[in-house]
From TrEMBL:
Matching InterPro entries: AAA_22, ExeA_AAA_ATPase_DNA-bind, P-loop_NTPase
Organism: Paralysiella testudinis
Residues covered by the ORC1/DEAH AAA+ ATPase domain: 132-274
PANTHER family for the chain: GENERAL SECRETION PATHWAY PROTEIN A-RELATED, PHOSPHORIBULOKINASE _ URIDINE KINASE FAMILY
Gene Ontology terms, MF aspect: ATP hydrolysis activity
Protein name: AAA family ATPase
One Pfam assignment: AAA_22
Amino acid sequence: MEQTFKQIGKSYAVAAAEIGCSKPTLVGVVKHSRWPKKNAAALHENLKVFFKQNGADIPECLENEPEAAPALNLESEDENMLLRKATLTQAARQAFGLARDPFNDEIGSAEDVFLTPDIRYVREAMYQAAAHGGFVAAVGESGSGKTTLREDLEERLLRENRPVLLAQPYVLAMEENDIKGKTLKAAHIAEAILEAVSPGSSPKRSPEARFRQIHQALIESHKAGNRHLLIIEEAHCLPWVTLKHLKRFAELKHGFARLLGIVLIGQPELAHKLAENNPQVREVVQRCEIVTLLPLSDGKLKGYLKHKFERAGGDVDKIMDDAAIDQVAARLTIHSRASREMAGQSLLYPLAVNNLVAAAMNQAYMQGDAVVYADAVAGA
């Protein structure tokens, strides 16, 4: 069909206006035989009329009924998974006028971090825990930007010359039980705090002496003008007993002054563990603020892409049309059945958006398109 269409000599935009469909839809049908799910039969007939009125032979593929794009299985497990890693090719990057890849290892400074009102709130909650003491759990899906905010916090404390000492226990093999891996215990946290506050000090052998040593080290460091922050990543893997012990770490004081702020960073399972109706951690729930990293919905998607492209020397309006951005939102919205209603669940988190848009840009370049259209996003 594509060769016959080219013989007519009209652009996709002009032809789409005559046929009565969008340009991305027409490109998808002509180039890839990708029919829309809705109104495919009407488009099929309009295409036949278009070829006939423009003096071209009707392509053989239009003699049969169109096969609409297969509907997504909205309850399949695959639809709940994020997209595979995609890297923008050098050729695509050059074709779209980008000085560097805007989606891969792109965070090099605080200016590279895209801030929405939701992200600002989480960012400030973490900062307040560091500067003034507090107990915060930052929760978000995989790829939502949790680690980026932790790195941003470290960078901000350095940039502002804040005297905050960070204790970050290693969580490389941490699991919530000792069958799958190794649990992170209060003793391990105490060792990490002591190393941060008093490097080189050997922890006492007995638990009583060790925790007294930690408390005294925090007091001495506080008198020297330091603040202290405990950061635990992958906190959704913390066992119940360790979560309960964290409350006691948070209550370490010197007079009225809190000696230790705590930031937990984890996936939504952490919020489930810290649910109000969970009696196992009720003492923690009453003291820990849960802040959530939300998806890039409610019009934030284009702002995110605009920021990403500008940081790489590009212009979102010259790289993607609005229909393509809408298609990104559609691709990253899944549905699950709740009672008898369909409830949309957004996966518009930075990592998923990065992977999908990079794949769509590679696809658009291979198709020879100067701009990323919806069909490239649909086929990515």
